Amino acid sequence: MMTMMTMMKGVRAAVAATTTAVSAVLRRGPARAHEVARLRVLSTPTAMTMSTRAGAGAGVLKAPLALVQNSRKAAAWGAVASTAVGVLGWSLFGDSNEGAVQCRQTNAPLLCKAAQFNDTQALEKLLQQGADVDDRHQLGWTALHVAAVNGNVDACRVLLEHGASVDLEDEYFPNMSRAAIIQRQRDFSSRLYPHMSTVGMTALHYAALVDSAELVELLIHHSADPNIKDHNECTAIEYTDNEHIKRRLRAYMEEHAALKEERERREAEERAEEAKRRRREFPLEERLHQYVVGQDGPIMAVAAAVRRRENGWHDEDHPLVFLFLGSSGVGKTELAKRLAQYIHHDEKATSNRSKGFIRLDMTEYQEKHEAAKLIGAPPGYVGHDEGGQLTKMLKSCPNAVVLLDEVEKAHPDVLTVMLQLFDEGRLTDGQGKTIDCKDAIFVMTSNLASDVIAEHAWELRKRAEELQGSDEHFSLSKQFKEQIIRPILKAHFKRDEFLGRIDEILYFVPFSKSELNQLVLLELKKWQQRAKERHNMELTWDDAVVQRVAEEYDIHYGARSLQHAVDQLIINRLAAAHEQDKISKGCSVQLFVTDGDVHLNVTAEQTGGALGWLFGSGKTSKQNTSNTNNNDSSSGSRSGADNAADKHMRGSSPSQDQD
């Protein structure tokens, strides 16, 4: 009894000293980064002093290691320490129950408790029962953090052998609630100042903090990263006074840096070999042709330029620059998107929100002052702190594919910025920072001379068909490019040096007949999939429908003219039939052509047979196609549909729009 009273007196003295120390820390205000206080409890719980250590995070209360050498004393001190923490919590934060911490229904509290008391048997049992070794306590720490801060080497060894992430960072941030402070002291460590934020600290930080050379060596053996910094920008070596641990960590930091560099080099070589193997098995030209119909010339030129860069046969001082010329809807934008997808190995790279694909509409840069939007406003102007649209994105992804859409509409001052970018491979923003973008690929699109290119190429296709029986193989002559197209470009840009910095000027030509059929099929398959997903309808068609839609092709609008034709000839009639309840969920719709017009044959399942509708061009005729089949009333109107049904085609994949 007397022993307990003596211990309680010691606890009260400890609490009083702790409260005084905390108050002193709080009165000092925000600590400077290079001069941070750390409170340490020395040899006995009744004698408490303070010492400071520069750069070691926030204030820390540290209990004497001698107290935990004897298991019975440790148990007694643990019980008393809990009481002390409770008293401290009440004295500092009052009697309010607000902010009480509710336990989550996970194994984290049990794991943390076993790690805190170095109970390896309990840890083994919990982990064998399927507990997640990296499961976090509700306040942000893991069992490995608890074992490390309490210097429990055996518990750390068990956790690491079961796959604990050695570099996982603590997420504890004091929220000033009494319940959280009590739980922090009870479930984590009673030796730490509870208002110390430990965000970013790893097990190695805690091992250094408790000056455990054995624990530091164990974590080093499991490849802990000594260069990780916590929220105070401190590494593990800055949390120890032990010279032996400092020397070991300093040597390990050099060793780890060399190993990391070697590992990154080896991984880079492996990635390069794997990429080369994939390129051999599936060349870039074939990848791009999966999404872009036709345009063999531009695709081969882009693939050749990228291949030179991938294999080290390129000018490292300049980025790749392309100018895509051609009418609307021939695949210029789609090719740029798929190039970004290939380079960044990411299906999402085609999204405008992807870092690997930057799209700038140059119609937004038609005024002189809008050049500042690219690189940011200079000092003293509104928006200086925001940075430029292009420089910010290139800083986050220096090897992005940058699409400058309709570049002919940009102001000449914007082209001056582009010239610096293309010529030097770097760009200085409004804040004076230089962004290196020599690894980027710039794709400019333009409609300059698009009508001239389209009409000339169309004539060449007709001539090739007459002479060779096919319009597939032809090319634009060098004379046409130099004498017709080059003067048009010079007259607009008025700068030979700008055109001279472009690596490749690529010409997108109108589609051949087979390519038109392919585009129409892609568009029909897209609507077929939509009909199935949205309305549970089966949509089919025959070859005549494909030919009829292809007839609406306009060389000046490319694939967009086919999309418009599908809307006018087919989708409008489907929508009208839907509105009139002539088609419904579960029905089958067959498209066929009669007298140059697209008609619909709708079959809806009913009891005892099917109800069919034939309509098109505003004419509708009802037809009963039951199992008995009245041939006298249906043979005339069914003949065209039956012939078309024999040749109908089905598809499944959505289209990729040509732009």
Automatic annotation (TrEMBL):
Q: Which Pfam families match?
A: AAA_2 (PF07724), Ank_2 (PF12796), ClpB_D2-small (PF10431)
Q: Sorted alphabetically, which PROSITE patterns does this protein's record hold?
A: ANK_REP_REGION, ANK_REPEAT
Question: Start and end of every Clp ATPase C-terminal domain?
Answer: 511-600
Entry keyword Secreted: no
Low complexity bias spans? 619-643
Map out region (Disordered) in residue numbers.
Answer: 619-659
Q: Name one GO biological process term.
A: proteolysis
The record's ANK repeats, renumbered to this chain, cover: 139-171, 199-231
Signal peptide span: 1-16
Molecular function (GO) terms listed?
Answer: ATP binding; ATP hydrolysis activity; peptidase activity
> Which residue intervals define the domain AAA+ ATPase in the entry?
318-503
Q: Which UniProt keywords apply?
A: ANK repeat, ATP-binding, Coiled coil, Hydrolase, Nucleotide-binding, Protease, Signal
Which intervals of the chain form a coiled coil? 242-285
One CC-aspect GO term = mitochondrion
The residue ranges crossing the membrane are: none
**Can you say what this protein is called?**
Caseinolytic protease C
> What organism does the record attribute this protein to?
Salpingoeca rosetta (strain ATCC 50818 / BSB-021)
Upper classification of the source organism reads: Eukaryota, Choanoflagellata, Craspedida, Salpingoecidae, Salpingoeca
